Amino acid sequence: MSMDGKTVLITGATSGIGKETAKSIASLGATVVFTTRDKERGEKIRQTLIHETRNPNIDVLFCDLASFESIRKCSEEFLQKHDTLQVLMNNAGVVDYHRRISKDGIENMFAVNYLAPFLLTNLLLETLKKSAPARIVNLTSGLHSGTIHFEDLQFDTGFSGMKVYAHSKLAIILWTRLLAEKLKGTGVTVNCVNPGMSRTNLGRDAGWFSAKMFQLLGKAPSVAAHTLIYLASAPEVEAITGEYFEKNTVKKTKPETYDMVAARKLWDISAKLVK
Prior knowledge:
This protein is an alpha/beta fold. It has one domain: 3-Layer(aba) Sandwich (Rossmann fold), CATH 3.40.50. It is built from nine helices and eight strands. An eight-stranded mixed sheet has the order 3-2-1-4-5-6-7-8, with helices on both faces. Helix 1 runs parallel beside helix 2 and helix 4 packs parallel to helix 5. The longest helix is centred in the middle third of the chain and has 23 residues. The termini are far apart. The relative contact order is 0.14.
């Protein structure tokens, strides 16, 4: 299939699943824009992708997803350079095994894994609507569990790395389902994907044992990226929205991911946090 004439924005594409996704989509002919926290590394990756795909239409933008100010600047820069956006892929993520605080004073995993895509998507939503048919693809995890901790969203007490990571991924699914409802009739779809455990840098801050498990048990990033690429490009999923995908297939998720009362409450709180 061809993606000629389409513009795709991918967060976190300097390594792992994001890089493989960017490479495959660029190979399909799309204009690919990806974000990086390291300008020098990002430029090297851009040149590598151009060389490997023979597609010169690859751009890189600086974006620190732990900073709302940086996200706003990134979206402004994107809109200055590009008139359309057919696919937004919220791929970037982090696992912390020690509690960290973002530049905006928010627990880092909740900020980067959930609030960053929430804000970036809202900033680009009008452009996506004008570019319809358009798609939003959100990265989540099969580890999503529990319920939203409205009484302590920041995990000021009882912090556990995997529990907080799972909490951020549950938030992604709830947001995806509610956003799909809000976007009905606009020509913009939104789905989330669980790529499974992959040999990526995601566990780099998780301690040596967990990092080793990512490397030993994880799938190759090129394999883990398949469903992201599918959701970005396949014509047969153009009308599907509000779903959770694994291995190119819609899957049921835990009952708490269908709680739309919680989803609306989370949306309202999130909108205030990113102001």
